[in-house]
Specification:
This protein is an alpha+beta fold and 846 residues long. It has 4 domains: 8-378, Zn peptidases (Aminopeptidase), CATH 3.40.630; 384-499, no CATH class; 516-596; 602-845, Rossmann fold (3-Layer(aba) Sandwich).
Length: 846
C-alpha cells in the first residue's frame, strides 16, 4: 500500500478544473516534486528549459521495479522498433521481458488548458489506487507523461485569465501569441524542430524510447461534439503501416467505450480529424510506427463555464458528421447546457487512463506489433521502386544540405555516406553523397519528408459543392522547402557506404587574405557571418557582378570583406563555427562594389491573438542575427518612420488585421475573424487605420523599404498606390487553392533582392496572391523577380486553378519615390522551414 500522498485538491486548494480556477505551471511543478518525494511509483526530471526559460518536465510513472530498470526497458523498446537481425525467439524473449511504452502530452496549445490541469490528478490516481486495473498498468506499462508541452504559454494564459477574471472579457482570447514565437503552430514543428520544446519530445520519442503509442490532449471548438477520440477519418496518408490505422481504431474504441461507461455524452470518433494532415507530433508519429493520436475536447471559456443552447450545437460539416445527431460513431449526443472545465478534465483523464489500460491488458500484443510494423515497413521499403534517396553534398547551398541531413538524423533516420563515387544510370554522384535507404523501419517518415507528394482530390477532400476540405499544409516535403535535391534512385546503399552517426563538421575553407575575403551569396549562413562581422566593426561590401577568386567563381551578390580591421584568428573561428568559406580576394572589386551595413529594421506586431507569421519571422531573424525592433500601432501613427528605420517588414496577414477590424464592420472576412478570435479589451483592439496606411506609403516615398509577405502585399499595394493587381483576388477555393503546396518558380537572380538564389526554385504557396503589372505609365519601375512557370506549376501538394497563376508574378520589387516596395506573394520564411527562399528576405535586409 502506498504511504500518505498529497491529493491535488489539498495541494492546490481546489479541485482541478473547478470553475474560474487555473493551477499555474509553477505550482504544478511543485506538486510533481512533492509526489516524487512521497511515492516510489514516479520519477520527475527536467528535460531542459523552454524558450522563455521555464522547466520542461518529463514525468515517468510505473511500478517501482520498472522504474529501477528503465535503461533496460528503454533498450528493449528501441530494439523492437529497430529489429534487424532479431530471430523469432529473441523477439519473443524481448516481448516477455519488455513493457508497453506510452507517451502522452498535455496542452501543447496553451489556451487548451484541460490537459495540464488534468495531469496532476491522473498522476495522483496512478500513485494511490491499488486495484487490479491500476496494478496492471503499473506492472505492464512505462508511462511517459509531459504534463505541459508549452510551459511559457501556460504562464501567459494563466496570467491573462487572472487579469480578466471578473471583467466582461473573462475567459476571452489572449491578445498575443501563447508562445514566444509560434503560438498555435508549435505542433507544426515536429519535423523541423526549430523550438527547444519540440527537440525534447522528438529526442524522447524518435531516438530514445521508441514508444508504441502517443496521445496529445487538445481542445477544439465549443459548439459540436464534446470530445473527439481516435481513430482519424478519411483520407489517410499513404506511408503509414496498415497496423497503425487498426491500432487507432482499437485504442479509440476502448477510450470511447470507457467514456460511455462513465456516462460521458457527446463522444465522437472516426470523424472531423483526417488521417492526412500536417506533420505535427500526433500525425508524424504514425510514420515512426507509433500509434499517434489526439483527443479534442470542446472548449469552455478557459476556466469559465459556457452555456450552449441546444439549438447552437452543430456538426463539423464534414462527410463523417454532416449534422449534429446520433450516428454510429456518435451514438449519444450531448443535449446542451452548461459546459465546464471540470468536464474537460474528467473526460481527458478517462481517455488517458483508457489508453494505459488497454496497453496494459494487451502488453505482449502491443510489443509484438511494434516489431511487426518495423519489419513490414522495412519490407515495404525494400520492395519500393525507390531504393534510396541520394543527397549530393555539393548543391546550391551545401550548408543547407547538411541541415536537411541533420533533420533526418534528428528523426532517428539512418543516413549513410558514400566513400567513393556512385554511378546510377547516366549520373555520377561524388564521394560524400548522403544516401537514405528506404528499406528501414522509418520508411514512412523518409517518404513523407523527401518524396514528391500529391494531396488527393477525391470524395474525402471536397464537399458536395466541390469546395476543397484541407486541414493544413497539403505537403510537408521538407527537402523541397529547403531547396535541396533528394534524388529518388534505385541504389541500395551497401558496400561503399558508411553510416553517419553524427555529422562531422563541414570542411573549412579559410584562405590567407590579400586585400580581403569573398563570401558566397548562395549560402544562407553567409548572412549570419556578415551580421557578425558588421557587429564587430568590419567593412563589408556587396559585389554587383560575378566574381572570380582563385578556383572559385561566385555569382552576383558575393560579399567582399576588407581584411583591414578584421582579426584573422576570429575570422577563421567564424568559418569553423558556421562552415562559411572565406575565399581570398587578390584585389579590390572596384566599381562593382557597394557598401553593406546593418539596416535599421522594424517589424509590425499586432494584438488580436497575435500573428504566427510574425513570430516565426522573429525567430528566423534572431537565428541569423539580424538586429530588429518590434513596432506597433503607435510607432506607425507617430510618423517620422524614416527617421527610425530603413526597412519595415509586414508579415503575412490580411490588410483588415493591419488596418483594424473595426474599420470593416460589414466585411464577411472580418466577421469570421472576430468570431474566431473573440472580443478584446479596448486597449488591445489594434489596427493603425487609414492614417497608418498613409504613413507606410510616406515612409517608402521618403526612401524607406517595405517588405510584405503574402496577404500583406495588398496593404502595401494600397499604401504605395502601386499599379499591381492580385490576379486571384476574389476567387473562391473551388477556383483557386493551394493550402501549403510547393510550386515551381523562376528567379531573376541578377536582381539584388534575389542574389544567391538559383534560377529555378520552389515557393511554398498557401492560397497566395499572384501579380500582374498594370501600370502603363511607369512600368519600368517594376521588377518581376520571381515568376510562376508557364505550365506544370505544382511540385508537391494540391493546386486548384493552375491557369490563374501560370506565368504570373510571385514577387515584385517596385521603385516608389526614393524608396522600394517589395511584394513577396508567398511566405519565404514559412514556419522557419523554407530555407530555399530565405535569401529573398535576407537580401532586402542588408
Amino acid at each position: 500500500m502506498p504511504g500518505k500522498i498529497t491529493s491535488p485538491e489539498s495541494f492546490f486548494g481546489h479541485q482541478l478544473g473547478a470553475d474560474r480556477k487555473i493551477a499555474s505551471w509553477d505550482r504544478i511543478i511543485d506538486y510533481f516534486g512533492q509526489l516524487a518525494q512521497e511515492s516510489d511509483r514516479i520519477k520527475v526530471e527536467e528535460l531542459g528549459k523552454s524558450c522563455d526559460g521555464h522547466p520542461f518536465l518529463l514525468v515517468t510513472i510505473s511500478s517501482p521495479q520498472n522504474l529501477a530498470n528503465l535503461p533496460r526497458l528503454r533498450e528493449i523498446s528501441a530494439r523492437l522498433a529497430n529489429p534487424a537481425g532479431l530471430s523469432e525467439a529473441e523477439v519473443g524473449a524481448l516481448v516477455a521481458e519488455g513493457k508497453a511504452v506510452i507517451v502522452q502530452t498535455m496542452s501543447l496549445h496553451a489556451n487548451e488548458i484541460g490537459g495540464t490541469q488534468m495531469a496532476p490528478e491522473l498522476a495522483y490516481d496512478l500513485l494511490t489506487r491499488d486495484d487490479a486495473e491500476t496494478t496492471a498498468i503499473l506492472d505492464n506499462v512505462v508511462f511517459l507523461m509531459v504534463p505541459c508541452f508549452n510551459p511559457d504559454g501556460q504562464h501567459m494564459v494563466t496570467d491573462w485569465y487572472q487579469e480578466t477574471l471578473g471583467t466582461e472579457h473573462e475567459g476571452g482570447t489572449m491578445p498575443w501569441l501563447y508562445h514566444k514565437y509560434c503560438g498555435h503552430d508549435n505542433n507544426r514543428d515536429a519535423f523541423a524542430l526549430n523550438l527547444p520544446e519540440s527537440q525534447y519530445l522528438a529526442r524522447l520519442m524518435f531516438r530514445e524510447w521508441y514508444p508504441q503509442a502517443y496521445q496529445d490532449h487538445h481542445h477544439m471548438g465549443s459548439y459540436g461534439a464534446r470530445l473527439y477520440v481516435a481513430p482519424y477519418c478519411d483520407p489517410i496518408h499513404p506511408h503509414g503501416d496498415p497496423l497503425i490505422w487498426r491500432e487507432h481504431a482499437w485504442y479509440g474504441a476502448h477510450m470511447a467505450y470507457k467514456l460511455e461507461e462513465a456516462g460521458k455524452t457527446g463522444i465522437l470518433n472516426a470523424a472531423q480529424y483526417a488521417g492526412w494532415a500536417h506533420m505535427g507530433f500526433h500525425w508524424l508519429t504514425i510514420y515512426h510506427n507509433i500509434a499517434g493520436m489526439l483527443t479534442e475536447s470542446a472548449s469552455a471559456r478557459l476556466a469559465t463555464p459556457l452555456y450552449i443552447h441546444p439549438g447552437q450545437l452543430e456538426g463539423p460539416h464534414g462527410r463523417t458528421m454532416p449534422v449534429y445527431q446520433a450516428q454510429t460513431n456518435f451514438p449519444h449526443p450531448w443535449p446542451g447546457g452548461w459546459w465546464r472545465l471540470r468536464e474537460i478534465v474528467e473526460q481527458q483523464k478517462i481517455s488517458a487512463w483508457a489508453l494505459l489500460d488497454i496497453a496494459a491488458r494487451f502488453k505482449d500484443t502491443v510489443l509484438h506489433n511494434a516489431h511487426r510494423k518495423a519489419t513490414r515497413q522495412t519490407e515495404r521499403g525494400a520492395a519500393d521502386a525507390v531504393g534510396s534517396f541520394l543527397i549530393p553534398p555539393a548543391q546550391h547551398d551545401p550548408l543547407t544540405v547538411r541541415k536537411l541531413v541533420q533533420i533526418l538524423l534528428n528523426q532517428g533516420i539512418k543516413v549513410k555516406e558514400a566513400t567513393a563515387p556512385i554511378t546510377e544510370g547516366n549520373c555520377t554522384y561524388p564521394e560524400g553523397t548522403f544516401a537514405v535507404d528506404v528499406a528501414q523501419p522509418k520508411m514512412g517518415v523518409i517518404k513523407t519528408l523527401l518524396a514528391r507528394t500529391h494531396f488527393p482530390d477525391s470524395y474525402w477532400t471536397r464537399k458536395p459543392d466541390g469546395t476543397p476540405m484541407i486541414y493544413d499544409t497539403t505537403t510537408d516535403t521538407v527537402a523541397e522547402f529547403m531547396g535541396v535535391a533528394a534524388v529518388p534512385t534505385g541504389v541500395t546503399p551497401g558496400a561503399g557506404f558508411t553510416e553517419v552517426a553524427e555529422l562531422a563538421p563541414p570542411p573549412v575553407v579559410f584562405e590567407a587574405p590579400g586585400s580581403g575575403w569573398y563570401l558566397d551569396p548562395r549560402l544562407n549562413d553567409s548572412f549570419l557571418v556578415v551580421n557578425r562581422l558588421l557587429a564587430a566593426g568590419a567593412r563589408v561590401w556587396r559585389v554587383d557582378g560575378p566574381t572570380a577568386c582563385g578556383q572559385v567563381s561566385l555569382p552576383p551578390g558575393a560579399f567582399y570583406v576588407e581584411a583591414a580591421g578584421v582579426d584573422p584568428e576570429a575570422a577563421q573561428a567564424l568559418a569553423r563555427e558556421t562552415g562559411v568559406g572565406f575565399h581570398a580576394a587578390t584585389g579590390d572589386p572596384g566599381a562593382l562594389k557597394r557598401p553593406v551595413k546593418q539596416l535599421r529594421i522594424g517589424m509590425y506586431r499586432r494584438y488580436w491573438s497575435g500573428n504566427m507569421d510574425e513570430g516565426w519571422t522573429r525567430l528566423l531573424l534572431e537565428k541569423y542575427e539580424f538586429p530588429f525592433e518590434t513596432i506597433k500601432d503607435a510607432d506607425v501613427l507617430a510618423g517620422e518612420l524614416r527617421d527610425r528605420f530603413d526597412v519595415l517588414i509586414l508579415p503575412a496577414d490580411p490588410k483588415e488585421a493591419y488596418i483594424g477590424p473595426h474599420h470593416f464592420k460589414d466585411s464577411p472576412k472580418v466577421k469570421m475573424m472576430l468570431r474566431w478570435i473573440g472580443d478584446m479589451p479596448e486597449q488591445y483592439r489594434s489596427g493603425f487605420g487609414p492614417d497608418g496606411v498613409k504613413a507606410i506609403g510616406e515612409f517608402v516615398a521618403a526612401g524607406g523599404k517595405v517588405v510584405a509577405f503574402d496577404q500583406a502585399c495588398e496593404l502595401l499595394i494600397d499604401a504605395c498606390g502601386l499599379g499591381v493587381r492580385n490576379v486571384v483576388d476574389g476567387l473562391d477555393t473551388k477556383a483557386y487553392s493551394t493550402h501549403g503546396a510547393t510550386l515551381h518558380v523562376t528567379v531573376d537572380n541578377a536582381h539584388p533582392t534575389a542574389y544567391g538564389m538559383p534560377a529555378e526554385a520552389l515557393a511554398l504557396n498557401w492560397d497566395s496572391p499572384a501579380f500582374a503589372i498594370e501600370d502603363r505609365v511607369r512600368a519600368y519601375n517594376y521588377a518581376r523577380v520571381v515568376e510562376y512557370v508557364e505550365r506544370d506549376v505544382l511540385r508537391s501538394g494540391w493546386l486548384i486553378g493552375e491557369d490563374h497563376i501560370a506565368g504570373k508574378t510571385a514577387m515584385v520589387v517596385a521603385e516608389v519615390g526614393k524608396g522600394q516596395a517589395v511584394l513577396i506573394g508567398f511566405r519565404p520564411q514559412f514556419r522557419c522551414q523554407t530555407h530555399g527562399t530565405f535569401k529573398l528576405l535576407f537580401n532586402s535586409l542588408v
